[in-house]
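In the design runs reported in the main text, the only information available to the sequence generator was the tokenized backbone. The following block is the verbatim input for one such run; it is reproduced so that readers can re-run the procedure and compare outputs position by position.
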């Protein structure tokens, strides 16, 4: 196990790296420990906020990337499945929720309307999203794709209907989640979610393109 040692205020700080579990912070909280940035913090670890034009897009992509990284870790090391399934599934689910909501919101924006989608249930959001996409494209070839998306979203809803089951050991009603689920193959889970994400992300990019064309046309007529 390798060690990377840093010195701050005459106190030694150790960050250990384990190939099985990643970075492990040792020790207990000290006065110099703050959330935003320690005095001796590595600038390469800085995350810059507030400059992005499409901050929703950054968040949407961020949740998928984080889940993908954990899946890659498991595929590479062959360990951590039983612990990491919960953040992986939760981040993939949240990624899809944000993606559906962004399509609904931007689709409305394209028609000069303002819609703020609410709730955490994926199937009602999908119905709104599907209506938005049909209004924009009306493509017959999308029917099969939509059917497959809906099938996968129904599977995900059966596992986690409202975003609680992968986050908590007990639901708000006191029941234990995932009682009838014994095995989730993380590779299968990631592939199915990834393909849904691919199609919806492409649709979202198409909506952004139409919005940019709309702005250009309005600008030309001013």
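Verbatim output:
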């Amino acid at each position: 196990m390798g060690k990377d040692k840093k010195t701050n205020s005459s106190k030694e700080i150790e960050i250990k790296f384990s190939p099985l579990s990643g970075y492990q912070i040792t020790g207990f909280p000290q006065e110099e420990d703050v959330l935003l940035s320690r005095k001796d913090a590595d600038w390469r670890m800085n995350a810059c906020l507030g400059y992005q034009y499409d901050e929703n897009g950054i968040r949407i992509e961020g949740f998928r990337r984080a889940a993908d990284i954990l899946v890659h870790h498991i595929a590479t090391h062959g360990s951590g499945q039983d612990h990491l399934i919960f953040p992986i599934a939760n981040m993939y689910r949240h990624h899809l929720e944000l993606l559906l909501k962004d399509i609904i919101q931007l689709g409305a924006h394209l028609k000069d309307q303002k819609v703020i989608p609410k709730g955490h249930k994926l199937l009602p959001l999908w119905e709104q999203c599907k209506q938005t996409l049909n209004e924009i494209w009306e493509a017959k070839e999308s029917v099969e794709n939509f059917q497959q998306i809906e099938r996968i979203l129904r599977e995900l809803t059966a596992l986690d209907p409202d975003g609680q089951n992968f986050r908590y050991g007990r639901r708000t009603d006191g029941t234990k989640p995932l009682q009838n689920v014994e095995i989730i193959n993380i590779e299968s889970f990631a592939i199915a979610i990834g393909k849904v994400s691919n199609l919806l992300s492409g649709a979202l990019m198409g909506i952004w393109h139409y919005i940019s064309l709309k702005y250009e046309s309005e600008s030309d007529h001013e």
